[in-house]
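Board notes (copied after class):
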Amino acid sequence: MLINFQTTDQRLVNQAAVPQDTNEEAALAAHLPQMDLARVCLTTDAADLTKANCRQLTQNNGAEFFLFLKANQPTALAKAEQLLEDLMGLARGYWSIENGQHYRRDPTQDEDRCPVRHPVAARNLSLCRFLAVFLFQRQTTYERRRPCIT
């Protein structure tokens, strides 16, 4: 039996023979250190998803690696789903800041095009802009709460 290493357009890159006294997983583990995979994006089937092989590919060979998990690996799938949820939480946190403070400050005050580069002056201008947004928000909130006098 052979292990084939192919590109997405089905071009054969490498092959490794699987000895009769072992399995595909062990043959792959023995062959991976010989491969130069720097900046190569790999995918594989579930049979090759051992921690040692994944670590070899990403840390030692420098490859980018897509892991496909199926429902028949519930523990790994649950961990991957939790990691994905954590990453999505970080992304949502970033975009809430970007859409909140930055988006309000840039269109109204053109902050991104500010030519000031001195760190102290830039910090002071940023504080002034922040204060202006804060005071405007507070004023509009206060005006909405004030009872109408007729």
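Comment from the instructor: The two ends are 90 Å apart (CA to CA). The CA atoms of residues 71 and 77 lie 7 Å apart.
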